[in-house]
Amino acid sequence: MRKYRIPISGAITAAAAAAILLVPQLGSATNVAAVNGAQTGDPSYVYRIDSSAGQSEKLFADGFDVLEQRDGKDLFVLGTKGDGDRLRGFGFSPTVESVLPAPQWAPVPKRADNDPLVPADVNETYDGGYHTVNAQYAHLDQVATQHPDLATNVTYGKSWRKNRGLTGGYDLRAICITKKKSGDCALNPNSAKPRFFLMSQIHAREITTGDVSWRWIDYLVNGYGTDSTVTSLLNSTELWVVPIANPDGVDIVQKGGNSPILQRKNADYLNGNNCGVSAYSQAGVDLNRNTGSHWDTSGISHDPCSQVYDGPRSDSEIENTALEGLFRNLYPAVRGSGNSAPAPPDTKGVMITMHSDASMVLFPWEYDYTVHTGNDAALRAMGKAMGSITGYQYGQAGEILYNASGGTDDWTYDKLGVASFTIEVGDNTGRGCSGFTPRFSCQASFFWPKMKPALVYAAQHALTPYRTK
Ligand code: 0X9
Ligand code: ZN
């Protein structure tokens, strides 16, 4: 087979890279498949197109994945079997140059407590047990079906790919968990119960965080009526979870199978598409630099290939505007303008966005550590408490990590006054669970026991976070 170098197009480059990277491993993957029954997707096709100069632009515009490889005036496009017909429909005459085998990975055995009747894709995993986007979404459906008195699903938007009508995009989904009374979980900021909001994988490759959300959801729905802490939480509080805030990015990550692709950003390649797919150069916008809170002021880059590219304008990305729309539907805007106006002491609500893996509890202002919020004492007190529960450092980002503008937590605090935190879920104990893709057994043995009490603490403070001393 020919060797294709780095593909040009950002969004589908990961698929290309996954397929290409997996080729050398095919022998061992096949063996694993024979033993465990590997999950496979569809093969990818490389099409050769006799094309005059400039047509790559048209191919991009039509959503095709043009590879960097050239042969005279021939171009190469990576796609599905059906893309051959689509290319013909756009007036091209493709021939199949090669077929790349589908990524393969071995699923973990079913979780011991799994109902054998649940849809199969709840168990679809990669890299030893991490759940795919579809599995996370099937989990939300399963939980709502099994616990109609406790769980409500909300679709709050579409990912960048889905919104553009490209293949492989996803809905943006949340779940609300509470012992339901009339009006609970409504998209109305004036809720009877205070709201604790947990989100994960806005940075796609930080895969520990999605797993913590999965376990948090299970802990809540399985504990109601049997665990007194959970029971009183669900009676008093709405627990919202967005397990995957950046599903297009996670789709790229999971295509690496047992070697996840280290995509951090979303899949929006329109600002620059010649980035490759490495951990340090990749297409996409960093969603945690893109929000309209002090956008473009610190810890950012204007290079579209950079890990911290903040986008062409504030809130340019649909994953963020959709999420912000959800936040506005869940929390009233109670904070005045300016950097030091406090939210009132009786403000309700806590938001935690999980990242990895610096082992830190962070709170606003994250864009500039020399500026403190008007709620600094209470945010710091909650940060300190969660720091002592987890064994993590705590502080504003610039105090212990680096200043960075346009993050989710600065936005929810800035625009709405919500008590907001980033928890960098990590291993600072030398137990071998550090990095973006720790072995899956670290989740049950290390991260979940560490995070559970911190999340319970935060949820229990959703009524009056700013009264914390
Ligand atoms: O740089 C980030 O976005 C976060 N670290 S990570 O390694 N997970 O990428 C820290 C974000 C802290 N919060 C804000 N800057 N808003
Ligand atoms: Zn992160």
Characterization of the model:
By secondary structure, the protein is α/β, with parallel strands linked by helices. It has a domain of 289 residues: Zn peptidases (Aminopeptidase), CATH 3.40.630. Helix content is 32%, strand content 17%. It contains 14 helices and 16 strands. The protein has an 8-stranded mixed beta sheet with strand order 9-10-12-11-13-16-14-15, sandwiched between helices. A 4-stranded antiparallel beta sheet has the order 3-4-2-5, with helices on both faces. A hairpin with a 2-residue loop joins strand 3 and strand 4. It is globular, with a radius of gyration of 22 Å. The structure holds N~2~-sulfamoyl-L-arginine (0X9) and zinc ion. The site of zinc ion has 4 residues, from loops. Keywords: Carboxypeptidase, Hydrolase, Metal-binding, Metalloprotease, Protease, Signal, Zinc. InterPro entries: Peptidase_M14. This is Zinc carboxypeptidase. Belongs to the peptidase M14 family. One of its GO terms (biological process) is proteolysis.
Low-confidence stretches: 1-40, 103-116
The fraction of residues assigned to DSSP E strands is 15-25%
Principal-axes shape call? globular
Question: Secondary-structure element order, as H and E?
Answer: HHEEHEEHEEEEHEHEEHHEHHEEHEHHEH
Query: Biggest β-sheet, characterized?
Result: 8 strands, mixed
Name of the top-level CATH class of one domain: Alpha Beta
Strand order of the largest sheet: 9-10-12-11-13-16-14-15
Give the termini separation: 65 Å
Task: Output the CATH homologous superfamily of one domain.
Answer: Zn peptidases
Going by helix content, strand content and strand pairing, the class is alpha/beta
Radius of gyration: 22 Å
Number of strands: 16
- Determine the number of helices (DSSP H or I, runs of at least 4 residues): 14
What does the average pLDDT come to?
Answer: 87
Architecture of one domain in CATH? 3-Layer(aba) Sandwich
* CATH topology (fold) name of one domain: Aminopeptidase
Helix content: 25-40%
